[in-house]
Amino acid sequence: MHTAQSHTVERTLPHRRNVHLADCPHHLQSLSLSTLFIAPHVEHVPQIHQIILWACTALETLYYLQTLLPAHIVSAYSASPVCLVSQPSVRTTPLFVIGVLAAVLGTYIRVDCFKALGELFTFDLTVLPTHKLVTKRFYAYVRHPAYTGSILLVAGLAFSHLSEGSWLTECGPLRKPGSAIVVWAAWWIWTLAVGLSRADAEDKQMRKLFQGEWDTYAANVPWWFFPGLI
């Protein structure tokens, strides 16, 4: 679970509890309802994401390796075996570079959160028997930095794989104008719906668990993901 924690406070709970998205406030009810509607399929989404992203990365890498072959070998084929068109324009663009940097930064933030939380980090929304509140490292700046890393990862992958010059938009199934934008929008809606719902539910649970101490921490660190933004 991603939560803000402290290296100074530790409380023992009688049992492990699950947090439900139904606890979300009124201003997030629409996002919570959409998340609950697709909840039975949530556990499969990360695996689907990984398969698609690894496949796209592999195909883009294969296409690049093919460009290193001698010209007479490549010209013997009317189209690349890893590309659906004969003259694609797969290339490195500024958006691709920005995407790679954002993905690397997001990965670093998430790994640092894993280290900061240790055994308290779980992918399910739960409270462990020896839960602690941590306010160090990235948790000193935002209350949910692991989600900050996830947002940066999604942004980076979108910039690098769903922008002009990528394999998906030049060779793959997103060659049709506007199709990449539709996928990008759907991906962002999903990410924000899940992130906002979980962040709010976690805040509620931490407030119940740590009470006044959590209120002090939340007052000192008012931002969820990005200081000054949200």
Give the DSSP E fraction (strand runs of 2 or more residues). Answer: 5-15%
Mean pLDDT: 78
Question: How is the biggest beta sheet arranged?
Answer: 2 strands, antiparallel
- Give the strand tally: 4
Order of helices and strands: EEHHHHHEEHHHH
Shape type:
elongated
Kindly name the structural category: mainly alpha
CA(first)-CA(last) distance: 20 Å
Task: Quickly count the helices.
Answer: 9
The order of strands across the largest sheet is: 1-4
* Helix share, percent: 40-55%
Which consecutive residue ranges, at least 5 long each, have pLDDT under 50?
1-39
Q: Give the C-alpha Rg.
A: 21 Å
Subcellular location: Endoplasmic reticulum membrane; Membrane
Main location: endoplasmic reticulum
Catalytic activity: [protein]-C-terminal S-[(2E,6E)-farnesyl]-L-cysteine + S-adenosyl-L-methionine = [protein]-C-terminal S-[(2E,6E)-farnesyl]-L-cysteine methyl ester + S-adenosyl-L-homocysteine
Family: Belongs to the class VI-like SAM-binding methyltransferase superfamily. Isoprenylcysteine carboxyl methyltransferase family.
